[in-house]
Each structure stands twice: as structure tokens, then as C-alpha cells.
Specification:
The chain is elongated, with a radius of gyration of 25 Å. By secondary structure, the chain is an alpha+beta fold. Helices cover 29% and strands 30% of the residues. The strands form six sheets. Strands 3, 7, 8, 9, 10, 11, 12, 13 and 16 form a nine-stranded mixed beta sheet that branches. It has eleven helices and 23 strands. Bound molecules: adenosine-5'-triphosphate and magnesium ion (MG). Adenosine-5'-triphosphate (ATP) binds next to strand 8, strand 13, strand 16 and helix 7.
């Protein structure tokens, strides 16, 4: 893509009330625009990034036999009355209002009340199970402290998967598989997530959260640096310095961002909706459920919180809006022509490239490039052309390599 055609521009200052690093950088680089606290528009660069995160999520959910669907954001009160959640948590979390004929409606902040009766329409027998469905959709929550940019939206993106099983054992098997799929998602997005025991709600002792340790996190976790023991402070009985209950090593305390959460729901929602299946022996039994959430928009914010420096963002390759930022410096037509030729070559090789073909100063181009933070930067200039070369630099490294013009496409194709 040509940067001259991009309708957004980098901006000098983020809004004053925007305190989080992720929102400041994403707004300054033109990835998102703030409509109001907790509500953002995704602009071309931001939407490309969010789509790449969603692609990773889709691949990993499809790999554990998730079938993608899309449920509505609007749903009627009656469904939420079946589980009591219209009243509790009620408007504390949910946006509720009236449509025509005073029909009471709400916006989805989670989807058990919609997905359970939906799957119930199709699943009757043990032969129809197990099944897993998921969607990637905007959720709405009346969040009290929407000041963390993409990390805590009032409208935000969620991937929610729901699994349905004949037995608890089968649900737990799937639950374990989902843990690995989740770790794959976060790894591929450049996040090192820890599996942390957290509150499980009324029907199970624990749920499991995927927490990324960082000082910017809102959660506190206690974890062992030697084994995999880790608990959210909301449920933990250990403190920093205590002995790990699993291996005896010393427990550490850290701030963390929750990027995912999986729950063994068991029969909580199937019993509310009388969702039963006919077992092999002809008896009717409650369907066993699990649910599994990831926040793609929070993932995007977290990546920025973790991968940035004082000049801007540093995107991991798999989710960067483009792989390469191609710049030419200098007014000479032959420099621009060489860059144009390289732009075509990169495009033909299928390499995603943002081409800064604007007529602006070298300083502006270099600063914008650091701010936007694509994984590779190519600079074509008088100096590099004197050696039939370009400068190639990784955003994450300081090192600048001189690479022959004729080799650079091949090098980046790898
Ligand atoms: P938190 O404790 O941070 O409020 P939660 O435990 O209420 O989150 P879940 O219901 O577990 O959130 O939602 C599943 C996932 O959706 C979370 O792990 C997180 O990645 C994402 N998520 C939840 N709330 C928000 C939000 N307000 N903005 C952005 N992402 C969110
Ligand atoms: Mg959670």
C-alpha cells in the first residue's frame, strides 16, 4: 500500500485524557481513533492488525474443531431471565433498553444465553456430540473504569467459543486441548502468557486465565518461577516469598494482563435451558459445557504495551499490518524510481509492504516509520544506491545492514 493514499496521518499528540501507552501510540500512529472512553474506531492500519490477530485465533480454534458462527449482539430479556443474569449482574454489566412495543432487549456481554438454546435446536443425541462453536464479535460491557485504551473497552472484540459434551471427562479433555490452542494464539501474537488459576464462579472451583506478566497489568498474580504453579490474587492463599505448594520454590508476585479465560461450565447453562441429550442407553442427560474467551482487541493493546520503545510500536511479524516499511530519502527522481521498482518487486513476491511515497522530509519518514513499527524497514537513498544497495533494518534491532538491491526481495521472502 502507498502511504500517500492512506487517509490517516500520524498525529503529534494523543488526546490529553488518554493515559495508557497502547492508546497513545495507536492513536498517534493512526491505527485507532477514540470516539469516547472505551470505544474506538479501527482505521486501516489498526483493522489490518486486528484482522491478523483474528486470523491467528481462527486458525487455532479451527484446529480444535471449532466451527465459526456469528450470533447477534442484540438479545431479548426472556433468555437472560432463564439464568437470572438479567437481574444479576444486570445493568451493572449489561446495556439494557426497550425496543418497539416496550420489548426489553440487551446487548451481549457474553453469549451463553444465546448459544445454549441455539445449539439445543440441533443437538439431540449422543451421536451429535461433542460440538464446539465460536464467534469473533463485539461485546458490550458497562465497564466502570474504561481508561486503559484497547485493554478495557465498553465495546470490544471477543472470540468466544462454547463446547458441548456428553461427559465431564470429555469436556476436560477438550479443556486441556484448548489450553494448548490458547498458548499457540498468544505465542504467535508475541505474548508470553502464563496459565493462572482463577475464580471459577459457582459451578467449578477454578477457571483458568491466560495472563501476560507486565507492570502495566491490572491483575495481580502469584506464581512460581520454577514450576507451573500460578494463581490470581483474587483466589490465592499464597503470598510473595511463600513456598510454592507444588515444588517448594519461592513464590513471586507480579502485575499481569488477562488476555484469555476458559471456564468449565459443566451443567450451569444446559440445566437452565433444559438442554439434554439422549444417551446410548436411551436415558436423557444434561449436556456438559465449557466456554473459552479471548479478547483480540485487548491482545492488540497488550502487544503494544509490551512491544514498544520511546519511538513507537514494535509489531511482531505475524500480526503486523505490513511486513515491510519501504522508504526513500532524497528528492532525486532516480531514488524515487529505484524505490518504485523495488515496491513492485516486493508486491510481486507477495510481501506485504507499506511504501512511504510521500513528499515529506527524511526526518518525518523515519520518525513515522519508528512510530508505526513494522518489522522491517528498507531505506533507499543516494548513499545506498551508490552501492546498488538498500539499508535493511529490523524495527526491534539497532543494526542496519546494507543489502544489494537485487537480493533484498529474496531475503525478505524467506
Ligand atoms: P476483566 O477481569 O479484565 O474485566 P473478565 O474476566 O471480565 O475481564 P471475561 O469475561 O473472562 O473477562 O472475557 C474473556 C476475555 O475478553 C478476557 O480474558 C479479555 O481478554 C477480554 N475482555 C474482557 N473484558 C474486556 C474489555 N472490557 N475490553 C477488552 N477486552 C476484554
Ligand atoms: Mg476473565
Amino acid at each position: 500500500m502507498r502511504q500517500s493514499k492512506l487517509f490517516t496521518k500520524t498525529i503529534k499528540d494523543a488526546p490529553k485524557d488518554e493515559v495508557s501507552v497502547n492508546a497513545q501510540l495507536l492513536i498517534k500512529a493512526g491505527f485507532v481513533d477514540k470516539l469516547m472512553a472505551g470505544v474506538y474506531s479501527y482505521l486501516p492500519l489498526g483493522l489490518l492488525t486486528l484482522r491478523k490477530i483474528n486470523d491467528v485465533v481462527r486458525e487455532e480454534m479451527n484446529a480444535i474443531d471449532g466451527q465459526e458462527i456469528l450470533m447477534p449482539a442484540l438479545s431479548p430479556k426472556e433468555l437472560w431471565d432463564k439464568t437470572g443474569r438479567w437481574e444479576d449482574p444486570g445493568t451493572e454489566v449489561m446495556f439494557q433498553f426497550k425496543g418497539r412495543s416496550d420489548k426489553e432487549l440487551g446487548l451481549g456481554w457474553t453469549h451463553e444465553e444465546v448459544v445454549t438454546p441455539l445449539v439445543q435446536k440441533f443437538v439431540k443425541s449422543y451421536k451429535d456430540l461433542p460440538v464446539a462453536v465460536y464467534q469473533i464479535q463485539d461485546k458490550f460491557r458497562n465497564e466502570p473504569r474504561a481508561k486503559s485504551g484497547l485493554m478495557r473497552g465498553i465495546e470490544f472484540s471477543m472470540k468466544d467459543l462454547y463446547s458441548f459434551h456428553t461427559t465431564e471427562e470429555d469436556m476436560w479433555d477438550y479443556y486441556e486441548k484448548s489450553k494448548q490452542a490458547y498458548l499457540n494464539v498468544f505465542n504467535r501474537c508475541g505474548l508470553d502468557a502464563k496459565i493462572v488459576e482463577a475464580s471459577g464462579g459457582a459451578f467449578s472451583k477454578y477457571s483458568h486465565e491466560f495472563q501476560v506478566l507486565t507492570e502495566y497489568g491490572e491483575d495481580t498474580v502469584f506464581y512460581c518461577s520454577k514450576c507451573d504453579f500460578a494463581q490470581n490474587s483474587e483466589i490465592s492463599k499464597v503470598k510473595a516469598g511463600d513456598k510454592c505448594p507444588k515444588c517448594g520454590e519461592s513464590i513471586s508476585e507480579g502485575k499481569a494482563i488477562e488476555v484469555g479465560n476458559i471456564f468449565p461450565l459443566k451443567t450451569k447453562y444446559s440445566s437452565a435451558f433444559k438442554f439434554k441429550y439422549t444417551a446410548e442407553n436411551g436415558k436423557e442427560q444434561d449436556v456438559i459445557m465449557g466456554c473459552y474467551g479471548i479478547g483480540p482487541s485487548r491482545v492488540m493493546g497488550s502487544v503494544v504495551e509490551i512491544h514498544h520503545d520511546d519511538k513507537g510500536m514494535i509489531w511482531p511479524e505475524e500480526i503486523a499490518p505490513f511486513k515491510v516499511h519501504l522508504l526513500f530519502l532524497g528528492k532525486d527522481d532516480k531514488i524515487k524510481a529505484a524505490a518504485e521498482k523495488l515496491y513492485l518487486g516486493l508486491n510481486e513476491a507477495g510481501i506485504e509492504v507499506l511504501f512511504d511515497d510521500r513528499d515529506v522530509s527524511a526526518g518525518v519518514k523515519l520518525n513515522d516509520s519508528d512510530l508505526i513499527g513494522l518489522p522491517y524497514r528498507i531505506v533507499v537513498s543516494e548513499k545506498t544506491l551508490a552501492e546498488d544497495s538498500v539499508e535493511l533494518k529490523k524495527r526491534a534491532d539497532e543494526k542496519v545492514d546494507l543489502v544489494e538491491l537485487k537480493k533484498v526481495v529474496k531475503m525478505l521472502s524467506a
